[in-house]
Design a protein that fits this description.
The protein is mostly helical and about 325 residues long. The chain is about 65% helix and about 0% strand. It has a single domain, classed as MetI-like (MetI-like fold), CATH 1.10.3720. It has a two-stranded antiparallel ribbon. This is Carbohydrate ABC transporter permease.
């Protein structure tokens, strides 16, 4: 018996759904979504919702305890912009960022160049030693540094006195002339290892054959660095610098435990300013704190846009 089949008739694939009907999720896809559900719920509850709520609270007058909330419109933003302490904290944040990023990027580059040399003994040990502060909690580092820089019995001051560099102990964290720069030095030391790893990864993308060919042509160490290494890692320089700028804006835990924004607001970054209005004040003002958080969040987004443009510039440079 012969069955005629129309050659113009569409034949559905085994997994294809009929027209007009939504495809069903496979059992594997259902398990994937089931495993992702806790992460999605927790991320939404503790990240997405607070961000959305902060934008709404910025238009309210509310202390966080009473049920009554008063809509005040843009008044909180006017108060934030009129507060000189907010602009002081903004200035401190930008100054801190501009102070730590160049040292962090350049010093880690020099160290990565040394650790990437095959002639350096115990390079693995040194890499691990420099990376250890990264895995240490920033809040613990801040507490420990209070003892390290103690003007009476801290090891830093005792060493300076024994060397004859100072006659009396220097209050590095209690003097407004030294507090911000001391915090910047601690921050660079704390996050030194992660930037060093970025540079090591960038250096290892350069093929050894390029160096061997240059050495055969008589190139020395300085010529290799100037003509081969630096041009080839230039795209990574943009990315690492932008990542360092963005990470320098997140110093709340370290600064709070080490100086608490003092002395006399000399180290009060915007994050501590927001914390002070929202939680540390006698009568919290969540509307004012949320307005400051929204302004600071927009500034962070602007830094992120610069990072995006930098990544695209790197991609265009590498494709060229």
């Amino acid at each position: 018996m012969t069955v005629a089949v129309d050659s113009n008739q569409d034949v559905l694939a085994p997994d294809a759904s009929p027209p007009g009907r939504k495809p069903r999720l496979s059992r594997q896809q259902l398990w994937i979504w089931l495993m992702l559900t806790p992460t999605v719920v927790l991320y939404g509850a503790y990240t997405v919702y607070p961000i959305i709520a902060s934008y709404w609270y910025a238009f309210l007058e509310w202390n966080g305890f009473e049920a009554e909330k008063t809509f005040v419109g843009l008044q909180n933003f006017r108060d934030v912009f009129a507060d000189p302490l907010f602009w002081n904290s903004f200035k401190i944040t930008v100054l801190f960022m501009l102070a730590v990023v160049p040292f962090k990027v350049l010093l880690t580059l020099l160290l990565a160049l040394a650790l990437n040399s095959p002639k350096l003994p115990f390079s693995t040990f040194f890499r691990t030693a420099y990376f250890l502060p990264v895995v240490t909690t920033a809040a613990i580092v801040g507490v420990v540094m209070q003892f390290v820089f103690d003007p009476a019995s801290g090891p830093v001051n005792l060493t300076l006195q024994r060397l004859g560099l100072v006659e009396a102990g220097v209050n590095f964290l209690g003097d407004s002339s030294y507090a911000l720069w001391t915090a910047a030095a601690v921050y660079v030391w704390k996050w030194f290892g992660i930037t060093m790893i970025y540079w090591l990864a960038a250096l290892q993308t350069i093929p050894d054959e390029v160096y061997e060919a240059a050495r055969i042509d008589g190139a020395g160490a300085w010529h290799l660095l100037r003509s081969i290494t630096m041009p080839l890692i230039k795209p990574f320089l943009i990315i690492i610098t932008l990542l360092s700028f963005e990470s320098a804006l997140k110093v709340f835990d370290l600064m709070l435990t080490m100086t608490n924004g003092g002395p006399y607001y000399a180290t009060e970054v915007v994050e501590i300013y927001i914390y002070r209005w929202a939680f540390a004040a006698t009568v919290p003002e969540l509307g004012h704190a949320s307005a400051a958080a929204v302004v600071f969040g927009l500034f962070v987004c602007a830094v992120g846009l610069f990072q995006l443009f930098g990544v695209r510039a790197v991609q265009r440079a590498r494709s060229a």
